[in-house]
């Protein structure tokens, strides 16, 4: 569900109901949320504290527009951005199986499936590279797993 050109990515936190925390790390926290029109989504908090300037807002929205323009089955979809006082968050599609590290710890994955996982990761990376986008933090914790795993 990519955002159409010219459509605002800005969302309001009042449109979301936080259900439970899903993950945390150096970036902040990720929550399972319910959005009034989109249903279940992931809310990734990317910055807490007062917004520094209009340039900061503009920069986050520009980055959000780039992310929202991406449309590939191996790239998580950005649905919106929340920028309110001390809250800067990304509203993203929910991939309920979690990250690859958690899945690999729970399941004994055959070598053939590991090969498929690598190819699917490369497929997404090639898509990004063709658009001059560099993912600077590839690791199992940052690779989300869909229900087809």
TrEMBL record:
Keywords, in A-Z order: Kinase, Receptor, Transferase
Keyword Transferase found: yes
SUPFAM superfamilies associated with the record: Protein kinase-like (PK-like)
Range of residues in the leader sequence: none
Superkingdom as given in the UniProt entry: Eukaryota
Protein kinase domain ranges (all copies): 16-149
Pfam families in UniProt: Pkinase
GO molecular function annotation: ATP binding; JUN kinase kinase kinase activity
InterPro entries: Kinase-like_dom_sf (IPR011009), Prot_kinase_dom (IPR000719), Ser/Thr_kinase_AS (IPR008271), Ser/Thr_Kinases-Pseudokinases (IPR051681)
Entry keyword annotation includes Kinase: yes
Protein name as catalogued: Receptor (TNFRSF)-interacting serine-threonine kinase 1, like
Protein encoded by which gene: RIPK1L
């Amino acid at each position: 569900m990519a955002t159409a050109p010219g459509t605002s990515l800005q969302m309001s936190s009042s449109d979301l109901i936080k259900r439970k925390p899903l993950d945390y790390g150096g970036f902040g926290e990720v929550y399972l949320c319910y959005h009034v029109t989109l249903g279940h989504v992931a809310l990734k908090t990317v910055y807490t504290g007062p917004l520094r300037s209009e340039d900061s807002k503009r920069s986050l929205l520009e980055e959000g527009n780039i992310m929202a323009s991406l449309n590939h089955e191996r790239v998580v979809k950005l649905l919106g951005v929340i920028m309110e006082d001390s809250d800067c968050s990304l509203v993203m599609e929910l991939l309920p199986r979690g990250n690859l590290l958690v899945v690999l710890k729970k399941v004994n994955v055959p070598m053939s499936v590991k090969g498929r996982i690598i190819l699917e990761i490369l497929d997404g990376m090639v898509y990004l590279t063709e658009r001059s986008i560099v993912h600077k933090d590839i690791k199992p914790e940052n690779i989300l797993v869909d229900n087809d795993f």
